[in-house]
Write a structure and sequence with these properties.
This protein has 13 helices and 23 strands. The strands form 4 sheets. A 10-stranded mixed sheet has the order 11-10-12-13-22-21-20-17-18-23. A 7-stranded parallel sheet has the order 3-2-4-1-5-6-7, with helices on both faces. Strands 15-14-16-19 form a 4-stranded mixed sheet. It is elongated, with a radius of gyration of 23 Å.
Length: 477
């Protein structure tokens, strides 16, 4: 199966719009497109899903070991004719200035996939070829196979770009020049981001995008791009970790708990996962790993459902934008009461970022909009970003995610801040940023664990097994 990586020299070059246009055009040709997103982003995968009709999965070489990246790619690409992988930031941008960790280039190398560079050619002519040449030569192991010029001003502008590339980089194919068109921009709103749940792509927008991409790009040439390297080894199935959760980069080595037994005629342990416009940020591999550990995932909406799903043994509250829907969430008192009762009863509950906010006293705007209130702090939105970046978490106590010493990686991104958490609330996370301890987080009340961190279970699949095992124990004790 063919795979291509859509990258750019920097954010804002138009790679998301181009990626969606290519996906739409390939789908209209009758091809099954498997979408992927490099990095920890939750927004773009939602757009991918709307266009392709398939779940888009994050691929991250810093949060997850190389083997996991390969195997989750193979798992989610099954049945597709082509995989389209949208990059993150600039092609070589990652966790720091000295390594490729967390970059699009790293994932392209892991998957041995050719890269197409989307270049914003506004106010550039021959210089655009010099820019592409720099990217082509920066890392010889990255196969830069094609370039798409965006924001091209005229036919003459396109001619100069073609001439410059032919003269200096004949081995990098110019797949097309996309004219400037403000109508093809994806709208932005809250924090500069709009989720697919909030603003589905209109048929008119997709028709216009497909028309431009179909006319301006050489899709036949794009479909001929192949990696010059060996193909990926076949997937071994499952999570591919065997019985040990270990990576040389991590300083943890501990046995993976076995999934709970499923007795004859007994249903798998049911875990309720919040999923709606307010809770739409979750790594799909987290859910897959929970299923492989023995869970049945049951989705529910804190916005619309007045009751929790029946016969559940655990709750997963992922991130999202609860601050946008605070009034509606607050008004759903019957569900809030059920969640409180479940937590007080000792049910395992895992919440991250937006899910954590939902469990606080509420969101303060001009006044407090009350929410679940398990944690005795309120949340306030800020005009500027509060936190952004990769994090490494070490559990400093036994928890629903595993024993003390377990190490798991994730990402933090939010514009909100909370009141200072009282010292009597237990902290279970030792938090590291770029290898430096930056504090304690991960707050526990009974069997409820909440944090601002979006943990990727692929960094240590034992956490999925541990959560399912604790849910099973709660159900059957």
């Amino acid at each position: 199966m063919q795979a291509i990586v859509i990258a750019a020299p920097m954010s804002g070059s138009g790679k998301t719009t181009v990626t969606l246009g290519i996906m739409e055009c390939l789908k209209r040709r009758g091809l099954a497109v498997a979408p992927f997103k490099v990095g920890p982003d939750f927004i773009d995968p939602g757009w991918h899903r709307l266009v392709t009709g398939r779940t888009s999965v994050n691929l991250d070489g810093w949060m997850c070991p190389e083997r996991f990246v390969r195997e989750t790619f193979a798992e989610h690409a099954k049945g597709a004719d082509i995989a389209v992988i949208e990059g993150v930031m600039g092609l070589f941008d990652g966790i720091d200035g000295t390594s490729e960790a967390g970059s699009t280039a790293q994932v392209a190398k892991i998957l041995a996939s050719p890269v197409i560079l989307v270049v914003d050619a506004k106010s550039q002519a021959r210089s655009a070829a010099a820019l592409v040449q720099g990217f082509a030569c920066f890392d010889p192991e990255v196969q830069l196979a094609g370039v798409i010029f965006n924001n091209v001003g005229s036919a003459n502008h396109a001619r100069i770009l073609h001439e410059a590339m032919a003269a200096s980089l004949p081995g990098v194919k110019v797949l097309g020049c996309i004219p400037r068109d403000e109508h093809l921009s994806i709208p932005s709103r809250h924090l500069g981001l709009v989720t697919a749940e909030e603003n589905p792509l209109s048929e008119e927008f997709l028709n216009s995008l497909a028309k431009v991409i179909g006319e301006q790009l050489d899709l036949d040439e794009l479909l001929l791009l192949e990696s010059s390297k060996n193909s990926l080894p076949p997937s071994g199935g499952g999570s591919g970790w065997g019985g040990i959760c270990h990576n040389a980069r991590f300083d943890s080595l501990s046995p993976t708990p076995q999934p709970p037994p499923v007795k004859g005629g007994e249903a798998r342990v049911r875990i309720a996962v919040a999923r709606d416009a307010a809770f739409c940020f979750v790594y799909e591999d987290n859910l897959r790993l929970l299923r492989e550990a023995g869970a049945e995932i049951v989705e529910f909406s804190p916005l619309n459902d007045t009751q929790l799903p029946q016969d559940i043994a655990g709750i997963y509250l992922p991130g999202g934008y609860p601050e946008l829907f605070a009034e509606a969430l607050s008004a759903n008192q019957s569900l809030i009461a059920e969640i409180k009762a479940a937590i007080e009863a000792g049910m395992p509950v895992y919440a991250e970022c937006g899910g954590f906010i939902y469990l606080t006293r509420g969101v303060i705007d001009q006044a407090l909009t009350p929410l679940v209130g398990i944690f005795p702090v309120a949340t306030r939105m800020l005009p500027r970003r509060k936190a952004l970046g990769y994090r490494e978490v070490r559990l400093i106590g036994d928890s629903i995610l595993g024993p003390a010493g377990t190490v798991v990686r994730g990402h933090e991104f939010h514009y909100s801040e909370m009141e200072e958490m009282p010292q009597e609330v237990e902290r279970l996370y030792q938090l590291k940023k770029n290898g430096t301890v930056i504090g304690a987080e991960g707050y526990r009340y009974r069997s409820c664990l909440a944090s601002y961190q979006h943990l990727h279970f692929g960094s240590c699949p034992e956490v999925a097994n541990a959560f399912v095992k604790n849910c099973f124990t709660f159900k059957h004790d």
